[in-house]
Structure formats: structure tokens, C-alpha cells
Design brief:
Elements lengths: L12 H4 L3 H12 L4 H12 L14 H19 L4 H6 L1 H25 L5 H11 L8 H4 L6 H29 L3 H30 L12 H17 L3 H15 L1 H29 L2 H5 L3 H22 L7 H9 L5 H11 L6 H29 L19 H7 L1
Length: 415
């Protein structure tokens, strides 16, 4: 039998043709309380130096810095392509509240227990707030990835989690420089951010214009590689010009999605696959750093801090930002709960650990325990909450055609 042909537009041909074991796996994953993200985190912890010691990696290992750099650039470039400015303007009422009110409130709210409970000074406390303010849709896949969840709720969570890691970046860099106590570093960071923004917008806009005017062309089956080429040029240019590569990646992705949405759509499936691979690789490395010795050395203050951040600060900030919106009470509570700390917080925490700030190990401790607890809680509650919203596991695999709601009540919910 001839194997199915692989393509960028359909990277899972065998799965989509319905092999029985893959279909069963998807059904089980839809019902289980464990997520792939949690399993990758546990795998890293098991393979790390604390248990099997197959992966003798430390926080200062060059591999950690390299992986964090490449992975964050990749994810921000992919996330930026969800920031089509025209679509954002059309759906800004809820997402704007979450990003413009909920995110700053979360950042400030986290800084308070980081200062008074964890004992960090105010600049470092705000750094922790900036690190933990982004969310990640990977750990709420049963909510974000389901076509039968109310669209406005899915769009809210997807847009928020797709943009807030990029929006948090300038605050992370500024508070990191402030925590180091160097005024010259703050100016340097500002220049790097401006250069990154200009480079990302300039390269993506130039490429989009060249494609529109047919100066640059590509074979149809190679078109998804166009955005990848832009990403490579931007990444190399940032390192040559000492610009901030992460803001450049986000700006390039957003510019491309705005000026050439066809190219962004062609790249989406391949980009999402590449993004998830780098995320899970980072989770394995992050899990390897969570050794039994590290866990036993955590103070009760770190655990209490994590619980407060997950159970109180994020929900309160989101509920305040969604006051007097058209969301139902159930939808507001769901949006408030699903603020999972994920990949961006992992990488920002690793960046802070590798700097010269005085309390970098304490910063990593409170950030790491919050992320680990968030992954465990949010990835184990997405499926139950999906059931609470009257959602059943789909009969078809992701990407296949979904059956339309059959009754008036379901149709109203889908709208």
C-alpha cells in the first residue's frame, strides 16, 4: 500500500485517514484528566538528574539558553500571526478587556504577594508579575480547540493567550533591567526593543509587498516556507544588529498576518506543529530542573504564593475586566479560571535565572512552582469543564468536519 503523501498544509495525512489506534487515542485524550503537556513535564522530571539521571542538565547549561532562545522566537512568531490587526479590531470588545485590563491587573496583583509573602523587592516582584502574566492555550485545549464550545469564549481565550506572551515581553525585559539596578541597561533594553520592532515590521512588510507585486514567487507546495524564510532572516538580522529577537518575531508575525493573510494561513498548520514541538521540548528541559532536592527545599511561602496566584489573582483580575460584558456567568467563570501558566512563563523564568539579579534563584523557585502547579491543575480541569459546558468528545478528529448542532438550544450556544 502506498503511504499517504506528507504536505505542509496537511502534516497528519495518516491520522486524518482514520487509523483506528489514533482515533482511539484522540477519544481517550478528550476524556482523560491528564494532558500531553503534563506528561512531558513529568517525563522531563523523571529523565532529569533527580531520578534516572539520563538528562544531566542544569539551569546554567548552554543547552537551556539556546533552547529557550530558539523556542521563544518560534512561538512568538507563530503567535504573532494570530494578531491580524483587522480581525482584532472586529473582535476587540472582549479581548481588549482581557489584555488591556485583565493582564495589567494580574501583573500588579502578582507583584503584591511576591513582595510581601516571598520577600522580593518591588522591582523584582513586578518582574515575577510580568513573567507569570502570560497564559498558554495548550493547557486548556479542551476549551480552546473545540468547535462546539461557544465561539466568543473560545475566541476570547485564544486571542488572549496568543497575544499576552508577546505583550508581556517588554515588561519582562524592562523589569529585568530595573531589578539589576543598572540605568544604562534600561536604556539599552529600550533601544533593543525599538530595533526589534522596526526590524520585524520592516522585513515582513517588505516580503509581503514583494509577494504581492510578484517580485518574489514560490511553487504552490513550497509557499508555507515563505514565512519560515522571513523568520530566519529576522532572527539572523536581530543577532547582527543586537535587536530584541522576541519582539521582532511577534511584530513580524503580526505584520505578515495583516498584510498577507493568505501566506499566514498557508503557514499556520506547519507553524503550529513547529511551535508545539518547541514548547514540549522546553517543558522536558524545564521538568528536568524540578528535582526532588529542589522540591524538598521549597518553603511553604512558595506554595502559598502559587495557590494565591492561580486561585485568586488571575480569576479576580479577569472577572473585573469582564464586568458588564455579554458573556454568561458560566462563561465568565470559565474564562477567569483558565489562566494557565505555560511556555512563555517557563522561558521568561529561565531567562531571569541566567541573569545577574540578586534573587534570581528565589524568582525561579516561585515561578517554577506556580507553573508546575498550574499545569497540573489546568490541564486536569479542561475536560471536566468542557463537559460542564455540555460538550462531548467529537466523533471526528481535529480538523475534520463537525456536525452542526441539531437542536435550537445547542445552536444558540454555538453562536
Amino acid at each position: 500500500m502506498t503511504p499517504p503523501k506528507w504536505s505542509f498544509s496537511d502534516p497528519y495525512p495518516g491520522v486524518r485517514r482514520g487509523a483506528p489506534n489514533q482515533r482511539i487515542a484522540v477519544r481517550v485524550a478528550a476524556r482523560t484528566v491528564l494532558s500531553s503537556a503534563l506528561m512531558f513535564l513529568v517525563a522531563g522530571a523523571v529523565l532529569g538528574p533527580g531520578i534516572l539521571a539520563w538528562d544531566k542538565i542544569g539551569p546554567n547549561d548552554p543547552l537551556v539558553a539556546t533552547l529557550a532562545d530558539v523556542a521563544l522566537f518560534t512561538v512568538l512568531f507563530t503567535d504573532g500571526q494570530r494578531a491580524n490587526l483587522q480581525e482584532l479590531r472586529e473582535n476587540w470588545s472582549l479581548s481588549g478587556r482581557a489584555l488591556g485590563m485583565g493582564m495589567p491587573l494580574t501583573m500588579i496583583g502578582i507583584a503584591v504577594p511576591a513582595h510581601f509573602l516571598a520577600g522580593l523587592n518591588w522591582p523584582t516582584a513586578f518582574l515575577v508579575g510580568a513573567i507569570l502574566s502570560p497564559t498558554d492555550p495548550v493547557f486548556a485545549a479542551a476549551i480552546v480547540g473545540r468547535s462546539d464550545i461557544p465561539q466568543r469564549l473560545r475566541r476570547l481565550l485564544n486571542v488572549e493567550s496568543g497575544l499576552n506572551d508577546g505583550l508581556a515581553l517588554p515588561f519582562v525585559m524592562i523589569f529585568l533591567a530595573t531589578a539589576q539596578g543598572a540605568g544604562s541597561e534600561l536604556v539599552k533594553v529600550g533601544i533593543e526593543l525599538v530595533l526589534g520592532l522596526a526590524l520585524g515590521v520592516g522585513v515582513a512588510a517588505g516580503a509581503a509587498l514583494a509577494w504581492r507585486t510578484k517580485i518574489l514567487t514560490a511553487e504552490p507546495h513550497l509557499q508555507p516556507l515563505g514565512p519560515l524564510a522571513i523568520a530566519v532572516v529576522v532572527y539572523a538580522g536581530c543577532h547582527l544588529m543586537h535587536a530584541n529577537p522576541y519582539l521582532a518575531a511577534f511584530a513580524a508575525g503580526s505584520t505578515l498576518a495583516t498584510l498577507d493573510h493568505v501566506a499566514a494561513e498557508e503557514f499556520q498548520r506547519f507553524g503550529d506543529l513547529l511551535s508545539e514541538v518547541t514548547k514540549f521540548a522546553a517543558l522536558i528541559v524545564f521538568g528536568a530542573l524540578l528535582t526532588p532536592e529542589w522540591l524538598s527545599g521549597l518553603s511553604w511561602r512558595a506554595w502559598v504564593f502559587a495557590v494565591i496566584v492561580i486561585a485568586a489573582i488571575r480569576p479576580a483580575a479577569m472577572l473585573l475586566s469582564l464586568v458588564r460584558t455579554r458573556l454568561t456567568r458560566q462563561e465568565r467563570l470559565t474564562a477567569a479560571w483558565f489562566g494557565p501558566k505555560g511556555f512563555a512563563s517557563v522561558v521568561y523564568g529561565l531567562l531571569a535565572l541566567q541573569t545577574g539579579i540578586a534573587d534570581r534563584e528565589l524568582v525561579f523557585d516561585v515561578v517554577a512552582v506556580t507553573i508546575a502547579l498550574s499545569i497540573a491543575l489546568h490541564s486536569s480541569t479542561d475536560a471536566p469543564i468542557a463537559k460542564m459546558l455540555r460538550v462531548e468528545p467529537p466523533d471526528e478528529l481535529p480538523g475534520c468536519r463537525q456536525q452542526a448542532p441539531t437542536d435550537e438550544k445547542s445552536a444558540a450556544i454555538a453562536r
